[in-house]
Design a protein that fits this description.
The chain is mostly helical and 251 residues long. The chain is 48% helix and 6% strand. The protein contains eleven helices and four strands, in the order βαβααββαααααααα. The strands form two sheets. Strands 1-2 form a two-stranded antiparallel ribbon. Strands 3-4 form a two-stranded antiparallel sheet. Helix 1 crosses helix 11, helix 2 runs antiparallel to helix 6 and helix 7 runs antiparallel to helix 8. The longest helix has 22 residues.
């Protein structure tokens, strides 16, 4: 018919079944670990000021690290250096050699892959302040790839023990990584300066000498649940106090 409008042909959609486009499954969010102040229970009189302060936090919710590789690399980069220096080294290493993303909160970089780490020269480690970490990072990258990208060990204590077998890693970094992945801080190195410093800000004169601190910590928290709660709450309290004391970044 003259003057009639022709309908444009529609491109048929591919079938959603076999041969059609497949959507990637949504990424599974990492689990949240909830710890109640009830787990702190009562401690000796010497620890009461600390416990009273920690209980005010309420339930602590922590996002467990879904990546064993990220947890181990992060633990290596923060060994034997103050927290501020460790954060700067971590940020520089990830930004220089990891995959970057632009987010609403700013630039974000993922951990460099094991293959990337093995391909780095000594000079590239030096450039981001990680010269002392290169042997451990290379060793753990090789171990991670040898195991198919996963240490399939059940239980935080067993995972920490297995990680400690990697050359140049050490028991401290292994325990930190195991706590990060499992969310169980009963395996965290309780003699760590961050734990002692956090407790010391509250107790001041209530702590024994550094050499005996870990033993004292275990006396205050004799069960695994108490040890986990006391350590996690102390680190959380110290982190919040530090964040409150840090001036906001200039716009």
């Amino acid at each position: 018919m003259a003057g009639a409008l022709e309908r444009p042909e529609r491109t048929p959609r591919p079938a959603a079944g076999r041969g059609g486009p497949r959507r990637r499954p949504a990424a599974k969010p990492p689990p949240l670990a909830y710890t109640s102040p009830i787990d702190l229970l009562a401690g000796p009189a010497q620890a009461e000021p600390l416990l009273d302060e920690l209980v005010r936090l309420g339930t602590v919710v922590r996002l467990t690290n879904p990546s064993q590789w990220d947890a181990v690399v992060t633990a290596i980069l923060r060994r034997s250096v103050p927290a501020g220096q460790a954060a700067r080294k971590h940020g520089a290493f990830f930004a220089a050699y990891g995959r970057g993303f632009r987010t609403e909160a700013g630039e974000f970089a993922l951990v460099p892959s094991p293959g990337t780490v093995l391909a780095l020269s000594d000079g590239q480690f030096d450039a981001v302040g990680a010269a002392v970490d290169r042997m451990a990072l290379r060793a753990v990258a090789e171990a991670y790839l040898d195991r198919g990208g996963q240490w399939t060990i059940r239980g935080p204590a067993c995972l920490a023990k297995k990680l400690a077998e990697v050359p140049y890693l050490g028991s401290w970094a292994a325990a930190v990584a195991a706590a990060d992945v499992t969310g169980d801080f009963s395996v965290f190195p309780h003699g760590d300066p961050a734990v002692r410093a956090g407790a010391g800000r509250v107790l001041r004169d209530g702590l024994v000498a550094e050499d005996g601190f870990e033993e004292q910590w275990h006396r205050w928290a004799p069960t695994r649940a108490q040890l986990h709660a006391l350590t996690l709450f102390t680190l959380t309290w110290a982190g919040e106090e530090q964040a409150a004391a840090t001036p906001p970044a200039a716009p």
